[in-house]
Sequence to fold (548 residues):
Amino acid sequence: MNATTTAIRPTDRRAATIVMACLGVFVAYLPITTVAVSLPAIQRALHTSTAQLSWVQDAFVLPMAAFIMTAGVFGDVHGRKKVFQAGLFFCAAGAAVALCAQNIQMLWAGQALAGLGSAALLPTTLALISHAVPDFRERGKFIGMWAMAMLAALAVGPVIAGVILDHFSWRWIYLLSVPLALVAMAVAAPLLTDSRAPHGRKLDWPGQITAAVAVTALVYGVIEGGADSFTATKVIAALALGVVALIAFVVAEKRSDSPMLDLAVFRSAAFTATALVALITFLGLIGFFFVLSLYFGMVQQLGTLEAGARLLLVPVAAIVAGAPAGRLMHRVPTRWMISVGLLLIAGSLLAMTNLDTDTSYGSIAWRLIVLGVGLGLVTTPMTATAVAAVPHHLAGMASAANNAFRQVGGALGPAVLGALLSTRAVDSLPGHLSDAGVTGTQAHTIVATAKEGGLGAVAGMNLGSTANQVYGALGDSLLDGMRLCLIVAAVLALIAAACAVVLLRRPKQQTSTGAARTADVAQHGNPDASAENAQAAGTAQPLGHRRS
Fold:
């Protein structure tokens, strides 16, 4: 047998690269919904306060948001295969630590390690696909597969958690991630095609440090402000530090010879639009999932598996709708595909404002399906446009930045909407208690407990014969808070749609091909890659051609 027959063919390596990229993003996103629906069980098992419990999810999201751009640079400089393997290792290590956690602090540590792993996986998986599939029309299809793998992880998470929690301890929700990540590492070692940025990028330590500090401080300030008060000293200090670090980041990137985030990419209206859409959309959607899980658990009193089965409708519908989105990107202008998807999301959120305690499964289901269809129409073209809107050699930077905006929005969503939910629910609780016939000292004690520890703390009180009345009042108060959150999330989706319509406009035709190429060279010195990527962005135009 000669070397020709034993060598791995380039087409096989490309297929393996795409499969590994999809598996990587699946591993990265699996903990998000799996842990989210398991929080009540974790709270009971570890006897945590509401504030401690909120940091279980945030311990995962914060390092992901803070270090995702840094991971993109490491991949460009040292090779994306190495960063991909490191990401899988950290995901496995984090899951193993969480699996063995005996207290909340150990669980936080495991979540943080897994978050670092996810930060490494998200930009490298997209960059690997971009390198393996240089043809922009074909690439859209595979980016669609990547987006579907991400949604699949969000879809199966609640079901996995529901089955495990019905039969085993909460900690076993982390078991699947360990062998999945380790097997992926073993398979990727011989098969995955490595790549790196060909234009001599180097590590930008000032930019990486200031970006990590800015994201961490700002997200921490918002989370703690929502949980406590935005006038608290630690919150003001964190937000001030975040603003200072953000200014320092901008200054550092402008002065850097090899910036982590080349600020020139924001001259691209397409890239700017997708960044804003990612931030705003995920702020509203992840916050909505947080609020809806409370509705299913506290208002409708559903078990974890039942709640997970309902939440499953959103990502499943997104997968079904998103599958053809990659193929349609070059036939339907991306601005309209993204805008229509966001309008469907806004409409479904507004339609859910009339949910009450007794709303049937069928009545909720069609709203969640419409929401999922809208999400499917947004995710693939948003991701593909972000990568295609910049020169080919900056694909890793673009994917990392787009994912960073997405994760910052995802981190802020539960904090912002959770704060709105708690404030509105606690404000309306006295009135609902009075309507239920609970007054006097008991009502005062219940309201004080809710203000200090959240609505969930009331469930742990000795309520005596008035328990049913109090639970009914709590449910009505939570519905008031949920309706406010749904309206806010819908408005955010409409703002994102407006950003897409305004910024993703079709460029004016250049008077000559030579003029277009000259402008391209003046902007970034890589006209061929820019022309390709402008076409790949659908209606988006290359850097410097954003004025319509």
Notes: The two ends are 60 Å apart (CA to CA). The longest helix spans residues 395-435. Residues 385 and 537 are 5 Å apart (CA to CA). Residues 1-6, 507-548 have pLDDT under 50 and may be disordered.
